[in-house]
Protein 1
Amino acid sequence: MTTADPVRRRVSARLRILLWLLLVMAVALGAVATATRSVLLRDVDHRINGLLVQEATEFENFVEQGIDPRNGARFTDPRELLRLFLVRQYADPDEELLGLVENPGTHPSNMVQQREALKFEPLAEDRTALIEVFESPQATGTVHRPQGDIRWAKVEVGAGTGHPDTAFVVAIHPAAEQEKAESIFTMLLAISGVALLMTTGIGWAVAGRILQPVRLVRTTAAQLTEQDLTRRIPVQGRDDIAALAETFNAMLDRLERAFAAQREFADDAGHELRTPITIVRGHLELMGDDPAEREETVRIVMEELDRMSRIVEDLLLLAKAVRPDFVTPEPVQLGELTADVFVKARALGDRSWQLAEAVDAEIRLDPQRITQAMVQLAQNAVQHTLPGQRVAIGSRSREDGIELYVADSGPGVTAQDAEVIFERFRRGTAARGTRATGAGLGLAIVKAIAVGHGGQVELRTTEGQGATFVLVLPREEATL
């Protein structure tokens, strides 16, 4: 058996839905038809019982109240009683009214009154069944015959002197009424079959229309590759299928960002680590036996290794920036956080450090990430200012959120640099300060932290001279 066999035997969701729909409808329609048949047969049984009771009661009343027209007195001859009663009766279809008189040999003779010829063999002509009814001790019963069952009721008439025993029997053949119920049942089954056929066509079309976005999801997933994650599913309507398409598109967005971050990380690592690796290899290849030269080579190699370590850490941090757990907000006193950042920044260099302002409010943010971003901005200010120059750190409230900023009094940022300064591996020109160091990832990390909080980082001009870097957090991140 090959691995392709399960695929060939796979049943589509469209077919499964249709089969389940047909099964449910078949069970429901079958149950309705069966219940209808049962009700009809029960009605036939009730009607027959009513007719038997009615005919037997009428005869009993006639026995008690009947007058012999020949003498105006009560009947003394049971046969004459039966004859007169049967003459006055009009039997219903499939009904027999019989007067039975016992003859020698226990074979009753009979007088029959019936409306029309029966479709089945009459009880009056079936001597075996007739004797069974006549001799039965029961007042009602059923005769089971291959030609068809007979429901009957019997009223015995007491024998007088010199008169044989007699009995009035009403017999009904239920087969015709039962056949009508069965024909209705068959008709309902036929109608159910037509309904199932119509349901098959309609269900197939509707299921196909409903599952079209699902097939599109499958097709899109099959066409996705690591090089092409741009395909999306059109969202139509507001049902569960539309929600599935939206969820799938959101998953594709996350995958695209993840793959982009992975490719960017690989490209950045290869681009930035190539230089220090080349430097390390070159110095190791040229290292001689002179102790001073070896010591200098070891120093340079260690510096380059430290730089590579910092680059890798920064790249890993930027790669984590696309993860939902990159920031972990918690309630923080903004004033205390600003003061802590100021204390840590003062150790970065000999500058005129100032705590400009600190807003007294409790906000929700990730204190470690915000501290990391603010210290990075302070380090950036130190690199582009001279000893003794002013560097201010502060936080303030605004209508739509809060701001945390670092303002320096250095040469500022040129318009050309302002457009690219927050991109990876982009450094400012020489006019920005004394000497540019690092890999050019610091401001990119600051931007990633701001975006992770739902905010942004802005570059503004310091009043007088210099540059001000501002972390702007939206108001939903703060409770002021």
Protein 2
Amino acid sequence: MSAMGSLRAVTFEAFLWLSVIVYGTLMLLLAKVLPNRRLQQLALHWQRAVLWALRRLCRIDCRVTGQTHLQARRREGGGQIILSNHQSAWETIALGALLPTPQSWVMKRELLRIPFFGWALALFHPIAIERSARRQAMSQLLSVGAERLAKGHSVVIFPEGTRVAPGTVKPFGLGGAMLAARTQMPVIPIAHNAGCFWGRNQWRKYPGTIDVVIGPVIQTRGLSATEINALAEDWIRSTAAALVENAERRD
């Protein structure tokens, strides 16, 4: 990475964490007087500000295809389960701006302890699980997830459970598929190559265009959790591999 690229990356990191403090403080102060939908608008404004800074400072943009699958589900109404591969911090910010609201994210509980970021995140009542207590975590996902889906939420899950470097294979957990099998709610798979430009636990950024593909809806009625998981994993894994292979970094 060039000296200019390093400077841009450092500047973006400073912007990111300063924005977390500013927006997080605002949301915590306003939480008692604003309805949840207005807080969601403030969170969306933060997400868009971060993506704008990423474009301006690090020259990382994104290209989304398959949005008609989300629009079709929106017209039909009801909840949906979003399963996405997990390569980077990018998708934890960008997908919130791309997906329909309301959203319920499944995440590890320790994220809620991060100053400002986690404190503000808790205002949106994510499905925060304790990964070390697997049986309790699964029970929580199935019960709370079903409640949120019944209210028309998009339940967002990273079935790999952690960020995985491009080209690395990690089996999908069954939690999202079990939720789908129990509720008979549709699954929408998402694949991307964000890790090629913003790597796992890396401050360096590589200019280019992140590709996001929103896949066809998987109708889950009559399918077992194993069958649902296989369909989603096969599609996400093959699509993400093609996106990684065709990723183009700019100088």
